[in-house]
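User: I'm writing a tutorial on reading structure tokens. Could you give me a worked example: one chain, its sequence, then its tokens, then a sentence or two explaining what the tokens reveal?
Assistant: Sure. Here is the example chain.
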Amino acid sequence: MRHTSNPQNFRPALATRTMLVALAFVLALTMATQSASAQTYNVLYNFTGQTDGGNPMADVTLDQAGSLYGTTYDGGSTNCNAYHYAGCGTVFKLSHRGGGWTFALLHEFNGSPDGANPEARVVFGPNGALFGTASEGGIGYGTVFQLQPPANFCPTPSCPWTQTQLYSFEGQYAAAYPGGGDLIFDVQGNMWGTTGGGNGYLCDDGPCGGVFELSRGGGGWNEHDFNPFEGISRNPYAGLVTDDAGNFYGTTSAGPGGLYSITSSGLGGTFLLFTEQSSAFGGLLLLGNNLIGTTSQGGTGGGGTVFEYSLAGSTLTTLYNFAGPNQYGAGPTATLLMDASGNLYGTTQIDGAYQQGSVFKLSQSNGVWTLTTLHDFTGGADGGLPFGQLTMDGSGNIYSTTQAGGNSVGNCYQNLGCGVVFEITH
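And here are its predicted structure tokens:
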């Protein structure tokens, strides 16, 4: 497994023997560009692992013009102070130009002071700027940052944006190592998120991680830690979802994984334990009084589940069981997407026809959920091992990234490729 200063900063798909064997097999296959459901799969960009970045772990954010914004875990600047990775990661933008897509590099991370190796996507804040987290760097335990476009006209697509470090996590007995969860803003403009490490004094078997709030004060941002699952579970990887009453809901990925809620004051935290040893790396959808999420393993098939938890009845229902493989982190690891018709969309990380992951759709009829595979990744030119969730535009087109594969197979981490940005259209 790739060494990192954070034992919970984990890239499950890139460290298994199964994937290496599967990759050697699928490179001999011809990439399928259309699925049985008549969806068309397109690669929009191939990362090289150089200045542009490599191995994205998060999905992309859409703006009103249809441009895509995202992050890469690796690549970018090779002058990463105190970091041994192949670059500290980047923030990028893809825009429609002349019938194609144009890549723009917005920021290259340097480790200190701006951060390193972002695992979450960037999101638009109330002021129109981009906000995000870096899983490491700063003073060593990760950062929260803001990106703003150049104040003056830029004649080229790749003018760097202005990056401002808003907060650097202190680690050890405080919050540390923000993972794959998006930042969210409450009505007061405070930022909320999760960390997979830190709060180490709360758990006997390792760092607990927790929930953090950043609020303005004294000319900067002040951080407050909350841990609603002390001694029960740990390591929330995904971000939070909030309701109109100011309650937050999230998942934990270890010890075993489960669900928790927390009020905006940080008080009244409640942990809702799963009935099985399951890992919940993805976040939640909040639909009325119901929470819908995923586990990356477990279920009757061993390949993970889609579940629904009723806040009103305190009951957990399995909506769908994935067939496998029965392997840690093989199933869905990202938050689900729901369209206007109530269909669910997501990704699996290691399973699929070639054990390189898949994109799926779940449709409900008479209370039964049926799975349709939109694309099976081969680990070759089409990419492989998707970890981020999906994004959908107003026309129903789907966008996201893969950690591995692409035209750069033979480069980047474990020579599995540097990843791609992809699109699935009707």
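What the tokens reveal: Confidence is low (pLDDT under 50) at residues 1-10, 15-37. The radius of gyration is 20 Å.
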